[in-house]
Write a structure and sequence with these properties.
The protein is mainly beta. Helices cover 6% and strands 44% of the residues.
Length: 394
């Protein structure tokens, strides 16, 4: 029985008799391949935990089950936590159970190309020191990332850390470790360095570099031999996608026999999606987003709220009532508020509607009600002179 060239579907041969068995085989093969393609489009990936990648050893590790949720069948296909050797240019793939009737456990494999079968599904490919995943993420050598929580991918401002641990031998020495490349634009928020073992003497300097240039520095000086030493240094430096972050450590004068064996841990805190300009945050203007000042002190200093000009409270709660007053005579009179104000907490602004330079207006705070307020002019108004009053709720 012949087969198609690419999908290897069987079909009846010329003049085959009986032909129905061959036709039935073709239809069955078409159905299986079509279902596999449909299921691939509806599988959702989850789990995986933290993933680490070392191009030097070629080892890819994930510390939690990778779960394939089969949305059509309604079952979970799990790849247990583990590790695998992934050579350069090789593909990581899994043989999925199609149309599962129970939840199942799967295994992963590598090859130069994905097998041309209905069950094979590519997960990732290694190109040099980088691994590209089918859902759009990538991981560089030395990085530790959450498999399905790429920082900032949703536009949120996630805070995460990259860490390195160093051993500091006796005397003066230096060491440097690469923490990896930035996946999305963000900002360095600070660095902390901790001596995890008591030592007798010595100093250590930690430099955080971006693309080989020092951006943050912390220093530890041993003054107490019985406790750990921790130094935290906040800092702000913008990061662009593909920037390389590294940590340089220089130790001097340690008195411990053998020095510190993996006794220094450095954490670099990074905020994704918080990209700041090199010169800092600019002042706000009519055309530039930036720092602004609030008109009143916020209720919460750490979560201040600026009100937009379309906030309904500007018109619904804080009503502006315009009143026109034209008293026949007198310099002391009441102005009726119509409609009445919700409370007596309001301010009144008076303007002269006609040329009346001989008149000044005073509106005392005391005596205001929701329905009226008192106005005092320096002299009686002349016939035809008008004062406009504006009452604004506060």
């Amino acid at each position: 029985m012949p087969n198609t060239e690419k999908m290897m579907w069987p079909y009846p041969g010329r003049n085959e008799d009986p032909w129905f068995d061959g036709f039935e085989s073709l239809v069955t093969a078409l159905d299986a391949s079509g279902y596999a393609a449909r299921e691939d489009r509806n599988i959702i990936f989850g789990g995986g935990g933290d993933v680490t990648w070392d191009a030097g050893t070629g080892t890819l590790t994930w510390n939690a089950d990778i779960v394939l949720y089969s949305m059509i069948a309604g079952f979970r296909l799990s790849i247990p936590a583990g590790s695998i050797s992934l050579p350069d240019t090789q593909v990581l793939y899994v043989n999925a159970t199609r149309s599962p009737i129970v939840s199942a456990t799967l295994g992963v494999a590598t090859a130069g190309s994905v097998p041309n079968t209905n069950s094979a599904m590519a997960l990732a490919i290694r190109v040099g020191s980088t691994i590209y995943w089918r859902w759009g993420a990538k991981i560089e050598t030395g990085e530790t990332l959450n498999m399905f929580g790429v920082p900032g991918a949703s536009g949120a401002s996630d805070i995460y850390e990259r860490s390195a641990t160093f051993g500091v031998p006796i005397g003066s020495s230096s060491d440097e470790a690469t923490l990896g490349r930035v996946l999305v634009a963000g900002t360095i928020l600070g660095v902390s360095a901790e001596i995890t073992l008591p030592v007798t003497a010595g100093t250590v300097t930690v430099n955080v570099k971006v693309n080989g240039v020092i951006k943050l520095t912390v220093a530890l000086s041993i003054t107490d031999t019985t406790v750990k030493q921790t130094v935290v240094s906040p800092g702000t430096y913008p990061l662009m996608a593909a920037d390389q972050i590294s940590v340089e450590v220089a130790g001097s004068g340690y008195g411990n026999t053998g020095g510190l064996a993996a006794g220094l841990t450095v954490n670099v805190a990074i905020g994704a999606g918080l990209q700041l300009p090199i010169a800092g945050v600019p002042d706000a203007s009519a055309s530039v987003k930036g720092v602004t000042r609030l008109s009143v002190a916020p209720i919460s200093a750490i979560t201040p709220i600026a009100v937009g000009d379309n906030d309904p409270r500007l018109t619904n709660s804080r009503r502006i009532v315009r009143i026109i007053a034209q008293p026949a005579d007198g310099s002391n009179f009441n102005v009726t508020l119509s409609p009445a104000m919700p409370t007596a907490a309001y301010i009144v602004v008076a303007t002269l509607g006609t040329v009346a330079s001989h008149v000044t207006v005073n509106v005392p705070e005391a005596g205001r009600t929701t329905s009226q307020f008192n106005a005092i002019t320096s002299t009686a108004l002349l016939t035809g002179e008008t004062i406009y009053f504006y009452a604004v709720e506060i």
